Amino acid sequence: MFGLVSANLQELSKAEKARYSAVYCGICRQIREQCSSAARIGLSYDMAFLALLLMSLYEPEEETGNRACGLHPIKPRAWVDNEYIRYCACMNVALCYYKALDDGQDEGKLQAKVLCKLFGRDLEAIAALYPRQCAAIESCLKELAQLEKENCPNPDLPAGCFGKLLGELFVYREDLWADSLRHMGDALGRFIYLADGVMDYRKDRKNKQYNPFLAMEQGEKYPQWEEFLVLAMGRCTDYYERLPLVQDKGILDNILYSGIWIAYRRKVRNKEDGRGSL
User: Fold this and answer.
1) Cα–Cα dist 47/85, whole Å
2) Given Cys at both, which of 52, 96, 247, 269 links 42, Cβ 3.0 to 4.6 Å?
3) Alpha carbons 218 and 224: distance in angstroms, whole number
4) With the CA atoms of 187, 192, 193 and 198 taken in that order, what torsion angle do they form, in degrees rounded to the nearest 10?
5) Taking the CB of residue 32, how many other CB atoms lie within 10 A of it?
6) N-term to C-term CA, the chain
7) SS3 70
8) pLDDT tens, 109-148?
């Protein structure tokens, strides 16, 4: 379900690419430091976007470095560290754990059970630091699983469930900006869920699995489906533009107004060609 919230690298400047990479590497480094090297297999660029957003909003002091690592042993890579990088590293691991737990319970996948053990090693510590966020992930995924089990014909309900989950993750602390962040995350979560439904439509139809657009019996009407996505992203960017962002605004704009749509259309094309999967 993740992997859409990424930049259009061709449109970033050299400095912006370096910054984007340093934030991503910073999250990877903190997953290793706070959890384990193995837990980095769940790393996603989605969390790099959230880190950049929170860093732009709160402008914390940053620690930087440049070194090689196990994944890149030859050429040193720059990294950034601050409290929001560490927060996003924890949220990345928590999301991976609860997703694996949900898959293991519902489908009994051996792989999911293995991943659950891998990501669950540090879940107790993460939940102690961020109880609201972890409780939201767990409860929303349970509710989402139930809606899908019932073959819910209203796509807004499961999309809203995933939106609520992401909305809670966007709120680092309850302050002046919490309302806008929560609404922005909610809208982005809806977009991600519905986009996933579009991309998996043919696969889900073939495998007789739940899909919000199959359940509402709309047939293969991609233009109509994209109306849902445009509305969700329009609401997301509306709340985004209300935030007083300056630092890294160019990268954030690139992701929301270009990168997401390019990633979405590429994944749709790959699915139709029988290549790639989420």
Assistant:
1) 9
2) 96
3) 9
4) 130
5) 18
6) 6
7) coil
8) 677 778 888 888 889 999 999 999 999 999 999 999 999 9
